[in-house]
Amino acid sequence: MTELLIQNILNHITLSKKEIDSFCNLFDQKEVQKKHFLLREGQICKFEGFVTKGLFRVYNIDNNGFEQVLYFAQENWWITDIDSFTNETPSQLYIQALEESEVLLISKKDKELAYDNIPKIEKLFRVMTQKTHISLQRRMIDNLSKTADQRYIDFIEKYPNLFQRLTNVQIAAYLGISHEFLSKIRRKIASK
């Protein structure tokens, strides 16, 4: 299970075999059944997770009861509620498995231990945080400047493998539109 994690780490930084082993030993493996939750609103997020198998959605529910998907996390992606994890405050998010899934989890205490004992790990998380900020910034700009049709086409092109694993309702919640409106967009695109 750690091979995927090791590949992910080495895509960002260089570590010795000893450093890799030391860091990977700080993670706990967890299996999560389809539709089960890693985190629910109101709980304090006590982990950062690395998905080794399956698919998760990270979402909240607005005051009108509508789900708003922040992101999906498939194999080789990281998941957490960074606000709750960092500040140890109750989460506003849910993290739910959409498939039978497996994830490697690291606690805040163990992450800090890694920072102290393997200084390059701080660079790893800094680089990943920067990439996350860039992705979120681009998504915000797209949501403000592109039509729902354009955002849907961009989603399909950017995440073709992920697109095949999701329902229309889940994709619509990510795009911030109703699934009925998404059906209209799909019909319009299919007729072209």
TrEMBL record:
<dbReference type="InterPro" id="IPR018490">
    <property type="entry name" value="cNMP-bd_dom_sf"/>
</dbReference>
<feature type="domain" description="Cyclic nucleotide-binding">
    <location>
        <begin position="30"/>
        <end position="110"/>
    </location>
</feature>
<dbReference type="InterPro" id="IPR000595">
    <property type="entry name" value="cNMP-bd_dom"/>
</dbReference>
<dbReference type="Pfam" id="PF00027">
    <property type="entry name" value="cNMP_binding"/>
</dbReference>
<protein>
    <submittedName>
        <fullName>cAMP-binding protein</fullName>
    </submittedName>
</protein>
<dbReference type="InterPro" id="IPR014710">
    <property type="entry name" value="RmlC-like_jellyroll"/>
</dbReference>
